[in-house]
């Protein structure tokens, strides 16, 4: 049974009690992911073929711009969601994202592409962060892992499907404008649904806060944003472990997004094959979260994070060592599986520890560090690739990912009550 909110307001927590609104938010987040997916296959090739960017560091500036703006906006989104409500932040995210496809279609130089990715980062930070917060509000404490699994699965399955479709469109009609017209449709539909059908969920969090007992601070629910930032960034072991693991995870994704298409085309793969590889990784990532999210509600969060980070390290090593399409298929499948273990589990762990009164800000800080990984990945991978090639950069990131998993194993405690009981 879904628990009833304690104040007689008629609000309920739980997926069943909020099925219609939760499903709508899943669809909205799929559209958010689809807008991001329009860039996964096409944009690295656009930089190389149309704008003739020869240095990897220069080519990855679009990911750097995206990562920095999305990371900072995540922090802002959490604060705004607490102060102004969730729905206005979601609508604002879609409004900022509307011009992105047009900028990419008509960009006369690489500066326009960077500007489009600044807007995309802001849009994703506002919209994706808010759908996460809203689903945590609706799900309540019992099904947080399942809720995050469904949310992230929807987003990254849409990334995968769009990456494959845009690869096919680029092969048939060129790199512009056809692939980006799909993004324009996503943005228009997402804005319309958010304006007309999405409802505010902040009251669910307020009702939960009335009875919540936080693992971090049982007596003081009203924390300053500075205190929340310190807890999530370095002071609280589970929250800070999640933040560093999230950063390294998205560092991996920045590498895969910006450099893997160039590695695959240099090896002689067709645009269609590159699109398949670009789609398989987020597809397994997306589908896998539908399993790993709810399993973390039964087994606990920490095992999935540790094993997932180590699995990603092995997969990256395989990408660096491989040279054929079938081997790269195996590598990206393994990379997607490792990411699926980590992604919803880290968000659920943050939700476990953070008090509802400052949970939105905690999610914002976590996502600041996590999506800062895009920027770190763009810088690190670009510099290493210019010095040692794409394969050398991939080996280095594989080692860093393994180290991150070991940090989680040593420092993070189990945040879910079921997992904690199993270990005692």
Mean pLDDT: 89
Spell out the CATH superfamily: MFS general substrate transporter like domains
How do the SSEs run, as a string of H and E?
HHHHHHHHHHHHHHHHHH
Strands, count:
0
How many DSSP H or I helices?
Answer: 18
The protein's oligomeric status is single chain
Rg: 20 Å
Largest sheet: none
Helix amount, in percent?
over 70%
* CATH fold descriptor: Growth Hormone, Chain: A
Number of domains: 1
The second-level CATH architecture is Up-down Bundle
Organism: Micromonospora echinofusca
Transmembrane segments: 19-36, 56-77, 89-106, 112-133, 154-174, 180-198, 259-284, 304-322, 328-351, 395-413
Keywords: Cell membrane, Membrane, Transmembrane, Transmembrane helix, Transport
Subcellular location: Cell membrane
Record keyword descriptors for this entry.
disordered N terminus, 424 residues, 18 helices, mainly alpha, single chain, Growth Hormone, Chain: A
Description:
It is a single chain. By secondary structure, the chain is mostly helical. The chain has one domain: Growth Hormone, Chain: A (Up-down Bundle). Helices cover 80% and strands 0% of the residues. α7 crosses α17. It is globular and about 60 Å long.
Short account of what is shown:
This protein is mainly α and 424 residues long. The protein has helices at residues 19-37, 42-49, 56-59, 61-84, 86-97, 100-106, 110-139, 144-173, 178-196, 202-209, 225-235, 237-258, 260-266, 271-299, 302-321, 325-353, 359-411, 417-422.
Blueprint (SSEs and pairs):
Blueprint: H1 19-37, H2 42-49, H3 56-59, H4 61-84, H5 86-97, H6 100-106, H7 110-139, H8 144-173, H9 178-196, H10 202-209, H11 225-235, H12 237-258, H13 260-266, H14 271-299, H15 302-321, H16 325-353, H17 359-411, H18 417-422
